Amino acid sequence: MAQIIQWFPGHMAKAFRLMRENLKYVDIVFELVDARIPVSSRNPELDEVLGNKPRLLVMTKTDLADPERTKAWTKYFVDQGLEVVALDTRGHKTPQIMTKAARKVLADKWAALEEKGVKDKPIRALVAGIPNVGKSTLLNHLVTKNVAITGDRPGVTKKLQWLKTPTNLELLDTPGVLWPKFEDQRVGEHLAMTGAIKDQLINQDDIALATLKFMRTYNPAAIVARYHLADDAWETNTDVELLLLISQKLGFKDDYDRAAERMLLDLRRGKLGTYTVEMPEDHIGEVVDD
Ligand SMILES: Nc1nc2c(ncn2[C@@H]2O[C@H](COP(=O)(O)OP(=O)(O)OP(=O)(O)O)[C@@H](O)[C@H]2O)c(=O)[nH]1
């Protein structure tokens, strides 16, 4: 598959510059990643921008992801020394879960402040992540309906807008936008499989075939059940033949563009079951020098 999308270094540089400026006003960064693609939905350059700024890694969309793999990924990140939460960001416990985890990350710092007599200091946070990862959804679920947007903070010359929450978190109202890194072709495929890239920018047939390749080992039964295929369909057909078969089963005859589109919608909406495309041992996104 050809490179499916251009990477915009200019946009990225600008986004990072903005984030760097905003970092000094916050105590912690919530880095959002999609639980289905924990590698492809991260931008490794964020490490450099954050420096030693405290960070909470938030795996979103766990309702769509493979629960076992979410556990494995959580352990993997925790072993790397990160504090991690994995959640459906739309859940009613989101404010409590996020606040508890943020307090844990900042426990020592806040204890030191309390010793100096500073009590109940709000935690100020910046939400960051690639497009579609759930930044706005998280903000909406952290902030109550009666949102109080405060203007300038004392001592802060720059005009920043803060969103208040009932749990003593304060969030910068503009999330930090990160771009994925496309050096590895699989990264583009995985982003497209989860719907993180606009469909106009991808070749849906290619992504449908990448999906079939993945499902062949991951969950072949889900495809058989959803499209009423014969039990031995996987053994007797190549991925391309399967797509054509699915097209016929859907009543689309040989219009496999339409079948590809339908299959991707099914995948992203969870109609083919929960799924996590990546595992740490897959070495996705690792660029090997020749
Ligand atoms: N199933 C599920 N859907 C989610 C979750 N979080 C976000 N979504 C959905 O994912 C889509 C994208 O969410 P947004 O909050 O708009 O993502 P964003 O990161 O703000 O996206 P940009 O504005 O493009 O940067 C929306 O349709 C949300 O409803 C989640 O935990 N589970």
Automatic annotation (TrEMBL):
SUPFAM superfamilies: P-loop containing nucleoside triphosphate hydrolases. One of its GO terms (cellular component) is cytoplasm. GTP binds at N132, V133, G134, K135, S136, T137, G176. Keywords: Cytoplasm, GTP-binding, Nucleotide-binding. Its main location: cytoplasm. GO terms for biological process: translation. Residues 12-180 form the CP-type G domain. GO terms for molecular function: GTP binding; GTPase activity. It is found in: Cytoplasm. Gene3D superfamilies: 1.10.1580.10, P-loop containing nucleotide triphosphate hydrolases (3.40.50.300). Required for a late step of 50S ribosomal subunit assembly. Has GTPase activity. NCBIfam families: GTPase_YlqF. Belongs to the TRAFAC class YlqF/YawG GTPase family. MTG1 subfamily. This is Ribosome biogenesis GTPase A.
